[in-house]
Amino acid sequence: MRKYILILAFSIILPVFVLGIVTIEIRGYTTSDWTQIEMNSPVIDGEVIEYKGIGNCQIIPWGIAIHKPQFDESKASFHIKLTFEDFSIEPKVVIKKGDIGETYVEIYASLESETVKIATLKNSENIADDPTNRKEFKITLNKLDENTNNDKKTEYERKTPRLTLAFYYAWYGTPEGPMGNGRWLHWYGAGMYYQGTNLPEIGLYDSWDEEILRAHMSEAAESGIDGFVVSWWGPGSYETDTIKKMLNIAKELNEKGKRFYISLYYEGYERWATRQETVDELCFALEEFAKDEYFLKVNGKPVIFIYSRAINSLSKEDWEYVVSQVREKCGPALFIADTLGAKFAKLFGGLHTYNVCGTFRKLPQMKLGLRFMNFQARKNGIIHVMNIMPGYDDTHVRVPGFSVDRENGKLYEELWKLVLNLDPDMVIITSWNEWHEGSEIEPSLEYGRKYLEITKKWSELWKERDQTKINKEALTGFFKKQFVPEINLLRASMYVKPDNKRIYIASDNLLAAYALRLLNDPLADTIEKELEKYNNGYDEKHEVIIGVKIPAIFYGRYNEYITSEFTEKFGLIDILYEKPDKSVIINSWKNYADLVVYRALNFLLDRNVREAENLFRTLMRMWDGYGLKDKAFKAYYETYKTALIMILAKRLEKAGSKIVDDYRYEIEKAKLILRKTQAFEGGFTVGYEVKSGEIIQADDTNTETTSIVTIALLE
């Protein structure tokens, strides 16, 4: 009998913890006519090293898929390499297959110095009423967590400004309108059957009506949308004139201070298109529209989106010809192809998917698929325009059709949260007004302005990242200015007395050393070495921030005077060591935001994620939209407490907690606020006020606050 090193998990009490990026190899065979091997972690890269047999093997966003002719029982062997992001220490593997044959799998993990087999799995089931014959396995990884690449991800160099776009349809006509001219176009089908899922709030409209176009574009701009990508069916289509009108309106909006762009969605033709016709039509679009100032451009190159219908109507070789000819005749242009294949999309310059609901159907698969596309786009050096949707329902116009429920806005907000997480080059919403397929965010009788309000909320938050970046050079410079060379430690503040003449061992220098480590500055070594004289700077409180357990009881505090030294630059400096006053127990610690975080971090060190999550909820109940109002709140928000939100959120995510997703908007807003507290000296101010929605820096910059904020932003 084969000796398996697979360990089946029947009852798990400990939480799932998350590793960093992990590469595994899958070797095996199948005698079924199809099989899929799926993981519960997102695949971000993959390679088919070897496939022997009939049919084909491909990487999918959650594993691998093999397809052979129906009822083919021949043996197909495979050797696959997959790379995962946020790999679970308790991964699940699902093997699906046809009704015939079996699928056998061996899984190997690549560690620093060796390749280790972590599982041997087989599915030979034929399960009644389950056409996928699904079999799930749970595996335990022994030393993989100690050898995982947990290095920080390299910072991505953006190729575009952050823009939110929306697909727009200009094919609607009414009998009274200029396009309909006595007819209904698109609104009604045969027998006056309404061809939509919902109804526009403003009533049925005509797409040649300039007042309608102006209202749509103005409303979109007010809602955080930067441009429309207009469905276009070639030179003689209704949309040609509409796009010209929209470019003129974009100019009007710009004169009113609303920047708005127009691009087009090349719909193409099915089966009968030729490559030369495609060249001619794309050149027409570039000559007719792209020279306009308000046509969407990236680094001076006009941007055209290409729908999958057009992509699939020509071969790869034909598209190579088309793109080269168009660029040769009409100048450099950037094409965003509707495809999941990043290597193929390199030919065009970018990729997107039009209908993420249709491609992946369920939210978990959407998240995996979009994560996969984002990683592949960056790996191949192309632009990813990430597709998000409020929902989908084409059952009114197609049989049988399908639908993906909006869940009262939850689906849309979950996809926006993923935007914040992945930070793609641009975002494109399907759609502004595709009423046939129920994907519209334009105000409707059914939903009112709900989806525009959601769009504005998340889009503006995401795009604000462009205006708020920390200056790492100035930040490092702040720490160096605080350094007292005669003592090898940092003083507390720059200007405020008496702290500009004091050195605090624990809350300042312990945390500063960790912050400088994140900044890759060698000054961290100097401080850490000096702290060895003082029990490494531990004070039974602040060390929990750097991953060292503290007692379960909070005490009052006092400063123990160590000594005073005269320094050339700062004069006489006092050295103080903060210590717990064990005669004073703080029983009301849940009223103080910082103590709530410290206790939660302590629970995480014990791998007690549930209690840490409960305390995170307690913490977020103190959040009022701009900061934490706890029992200690006085004149302004304390910056370090806002930073502690982020530190705890990141540690919870690292521990595999999903609770952070419920507060994604608040955490992103906290991050933006923190960035706005960086003063010209490079450090972060002790506090901030909010006036008319604007963040106003308050008080001095000091070492403790700056250290905690640095940890929050850079860890």
Count up the domains.
3
Task: Name the CATH superfamily classification of the largest domain.
Answer: Glycosidases
Mean of residue pLDDT values: 89
Q: What is Rg? A: 29 Å
At the first level of CATH, what is the class of the largest domain? Alpha Beta
> Structural class per helix/strand content?
alpha/beta
Strand content: 15-25%
CATH-level-2 architecture of the largest domain: Alpha-Beta Barrel
Distance between the termini: 48 Å
Number of DSSP-assigned strands: 29
The helical percent reads: 25-40%
CATH topology of the largest domain: TIM Barrel
* Total count of helical runs of at least 4 residues: 19
For the biggest sheet, the summary is:
8 strands, parallel, barrel
Strand order of the largest sheet: 11-12-13-15-16-17-18-21
Overall shape: it is globular
Contiguous runs where pLDDT drops below 50 for at least 5 residues: 1-19, 142-153
Q: Would you give an account of this structure?
A:
- The chain is an alpha/beta fold and 715 residues long.
- The protein has 3 domains: 22-147, no CATH class; 166-466, TIM Barrel (Alpha-Beta Barrel), CATH 3.20.20.80; 472-714.
- It has 19 helices and 29 strands.
- The strands form 7 sheets. The protein has an 8-stranded parallel barrel, surrounded by 5 helices. A 5-stranded antiparallel sheet has the order 3-6-1-8-9. Strands 4-5-2-7-10 form a 5-stranded antiparallel sheet, with no helix packed on it.
- Helix 17 packs parallel to helix 19 (703-714).
- The chain is globular and about 90 Å long.
- 43% of the residues are buried.
